[in-house]
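JOB MANIFEST
job_type = single_chain_structure
chain_count = 1
residues = 154
[input]
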Amino acid sequence: MRKRKPKPRVLLPDPRYNDPMVTQFVNNMMYSGKKNLAFEIFYDAMDIIAEKTNKDPHNVWKKALNNVMPGIAVRSRRIGGATFQIPTEIRPATKVSKGMKWMIGFARKRSGKGMAQKLAAEIMAAEKGEGAAVKKKEDTHRMAESNRAFAHFR
């Protein structure tokens, strides 16, 4: 076991919205250390959202992220030779990172031209409570609800 917890790394806020959450999102989206390209894609997606919805794209993105973040998940635990799916609460930092990763992953799987357009479409769908990332959250919650009988094994 480790002696002490490592200090959480402080993320610098992004240049346009001055929000460290945006930097975390871009870091999750980045491939091969290409951070400038990831920022470019994110900001292009924000411009597309602003153009299509006539709302503040940063608020749309935040609302979409809140709609995607899971509150509860199931964890496998072996008890007496049987494996049970036990519903557990998720820590706030994990909620955020799971939500971001789901949104990015399902944006990549979308059909469309260019990552900026796919990401914008996924964010707008998530803001309305639709889209694959929101469905993933609902499936996770449904799974936890159906295994609620095993919550006492926690």
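[summary]
Helices lie at 20-29, 35-53, 57-68, 92-109, 115-127, 132-146.
The chain has one domain: 20-26+34-153.
exit_status = 0
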